[in-house]
Amino acid sequence: MKNTKYLILLVTLFLGLSACNEDKWLEEEAFGFYSADNSYVSEDQFNAAVTKIYQETDQYSTWSNNANFFISLYTSDLAFGANRQNINLNNYGAQLVPGNGHVRINWQRYYSVIANTNTVLGRIDLEGTVFTSEAKRTTLKAEASFFRGYLYKYLATQYGGVPLILEEVTSAKRDFVRATQAEVYAQCILDLEYAAANLPDVTELGDEVRLTKAAANHLLAELYIIVGEYDKAIAKASAVIDNPSYELMKTRFGSRKDEPGDVYWDLFRRGNQNRSSGNTEAIWVAQYEYLTPGGGNGSTITQFLGPGYYNIQGPDGSNLFLGPTTQNGGRGISWLAPSDYILEDVWTDSPGDMRNSEYNIIRDLVADNPNSPYFGQKMVENNLISNDNSLSKLWSAIFVKTTPINNFPEELFVDASTGEVTRNASQTFSDHYHIRLAETYLLRAEAYLLDSKPGLAADDINKLRERANAPLVDGSDIDIDFILDERARELHFEEFRTLTLKRMGKLVERVRASNPWYNGKFSPELSTIDEYHSLWPIPSQEIERNTEAELVQNPGYPN
Fold this sequence. Notes:
Blueprint: H1 2-18, H2 22-26, H3 43-63, H4 71-74, E1 79-81, H5 92-95, H6 101-123, H7 134-159, H8 181-198, H9 213-226, H10 230-241, H11 263-266, E2 282-286, H12 301-305, E3 336-338, H13 340-343, E4 361-362, E5 398-399, E6 413-415, E7 420-421, E8 432-436, H14 437-450, H15 454-467, H16 480-491, H17 497-503, H18 507-514, H19 540-545
Antiparallel strand pairs: 1-3, 2-8, 4-5, 6-7
Helix pairs in contact: 3-6, 3-7, 6-7, 7-8, 8-9, 9-10, 9-14, 10-14, 14-15, 14-16
């Protein structure tokens, strides 16, 4: 109340002093609310703005599910949309068009975050900004630069050349033009080189949530591969790999290390993604805080990839299972399903591979409905699944890295004695890797191969295969397809698979070979994919409202 009285007094005084000067009175000046002029002044305000960029990037890249991350799975060689053929982007030829909602939403979301990075970078050095130290100012600039490089890398890989906006847009603008894809990648490299030079090392970082030099160097390794500068890619990957603070996890660790499992299983248990768990492999992790306001939405890959096993009926027509349970991975609906490539093919030449162990890919379940005559029997081994259950919706396999199996929050239990859980047992309830060291080894292996050093590429791949107890390889085994296979074995349902296939020039070939909507397994009339689908179309809405310049459409698509 006292503050209100003071505010009224100040306003009255101001009115009295300015009444004689009408022009002065009409000038706007913000005092008691945030405006564009006073929202970016203090260190706390800039820190809040950068924190928001973290949150939005996680939201749109990781937690947005079928609007982004899941698209990169079911339109690839790893998985397929299991509902029906002509839905979402199951059929590139029919659905991947300029008016598609996913095409528009991803463009708009990523540009909205880029706009926020430009605001931070454009205002952080203005006169009147106040920081406790220049080092803090520089770190925030480096974080914003990292995100701009990361976001433009996505856009360039997905859409090709895109408008390159590097300054804050403060008024309506309808004359955007496309930079070339090469120009966009060059800008990404500039932003990420600045980030790598000015972000802290992990040893200097008190907050494990924030970005480090390693994250920037990892992305630079990928970008230098894209632009064909393999020596630089090797150097950037080596800067991460040779940092003694990072190491592949080779022994059991974390919250459930005393339970049956293996170290690959440990990497994906709730609470094990950050360095505080003992994990030296994590480089950049999307943060999720259960039951915390603003703590993220969590990944629903548990639901969307998990099979609907709880609806499986035995030969007598009765349910084999009580319902969704914690021991069977929660409540899956199999909106997308794994391909035969990741279920079987990729493991053929990798016998004994830990990443394919019974702890990491569950291929059979024990009937747990005590009212079923098949109670206690394995359903696959005993051929209990009827033919009606065979189209992946009810059963394929459970990829344990995508579910907190036997570790759902206690609030979700219907009956703790049987393990039954509610329909809300549909998230990972855990943090999610953006980058971990295993991928850095794979990037360096790729750079070595392209630099005509297959022996060194094999050495890096063997680091992962040693950890996985898989047979070792030599340089004569390594080609781009082998590296893609190794990425599938190590990074399945983690990486943006279609982006990897696109930048390696393998999208169309791999989708035609392994996605069952395209190779004839499920559809006598194949879905179609052509070379021009390696880039998404420019959204029609963006073209239509860009009235003062031509935003050229990608070849193969109608305007």
